[in-house]
What does this fold into?
Amino acid sequence: MAAFLTFGALGAGCSAEGPPRSPAAQEALPPGVEEALDPDIKGGIALESRGLIAVTNEGARTNIPFGTPMDELKSQVEPLIGPATSEALVADCGTTAGPVQIAWDGMTLLARDGLFAGWEATDGGYAVIDKQGEVTIGQSLSQVTNVLGPLELKKTTRGYEFVIEAGPGATEYAGVFASEDPSAALEGFTAGLNCYID
It folds into this structure.
């Protein structure tokens, strides 16, 4: 089982409306994703700012943007990483209609009205690839800033959060460190609708 991330936008705070609905799958990969993904990586998923990319064992890549029906997403993802370990309604996400949280080890997807709306990754096996370099959960603040440049950290209920604006067609992205110490570990990323980053 393989899993990897492309470094894209991560949503800060819980959006009341969530990401706009998009036509499901089969559209062209988002700009920069094709170049960012190692052509030798097969049989896994890549999380990125506008959704995720499924990569088969043969290397075929399918774009699964936010707004994709979850049944369709599962049919693409579960053969690659197995069935979800849990599925539950999120009672408090700043909205009257809580989203459904679907979890795998080290990764959680959020669905609203049956549509893919956001994700969070917390596992050190997930590499985050950006045009400036590679970031991995568990790397130190010093290592991450060497790739991304200076980060403005804000104390939240989860730790020390940073939020960076993304380009056109992408939401914000965010990450959380345990502290402001240069050796503090990067603990998580999230994109789209989420109920984790303050």
